[in-house]
Design brief:
A hairpin with a 4-residue loop joins strand 3 and strand 4. With 116 residues, the chain is an alpha+beta fold. The longest helix is centred in the middle third of the chain and has 15 residues. It contains 3 helices and 5 strands; from the N terminus they run αββααβββ. Strands 2-1-5-4-3 form a 5-stranded antiparallel sheet. It is globular.
């Protein structure tokens, strides 16, 4: 069984958007939910583009600071980025590390604050 296929199958069906960004800050993968959420910005056309093409200067500065923290602490896996009023959710930057804890990239996790 190919674990890449298994994990992609899991991530593809997640309700939360997953937009993986490598350490060059290039979007390399978006799950179905991310493609839908960011359709107004180009959806699949964002793959291969810089994450900073979609962010303002302050957001870029903060993202670079968060990634620097992830690079300098192998045990740090998640950083709270703030509350998004428009979507009523908390946002986190999540480290994606290899088996040696080396940072490979990151993605944003969106946690709804809506009570269901």
């Amino acid at each position: 069984m190919n674990l890449d296929t298994v994990f992609k199958g899991i991530v593809e069906d997640m309700k939360n958007p997953v937009c993986f960004v490598n350490l060059d800050h290039t979007i390399t993968y978006m799950n179905k939910s991310a493609l839908e959420r960011y359709a107004h910005r180009g959806g699949e056309k964002l793959i291969g583009k810089s994450i900073f093409d979609c962010h303002n200067e302050n957001s870029k500065k903060l993202t670079l600071e968060y990634v620097d923290r992830l690079l300098n602490d192998d045990d740090l896996t998640e950083i709270f980025m703030g509350y998004n009023k428009k979507h009523d959710e908390n946002n986190y930057i999540i480290a994606v590390r290899d088996e040696n804890k080396k940072l490979m990239g990151y993605y944003e996790r969106h946690e709804s604050c809506k009570q269901e």
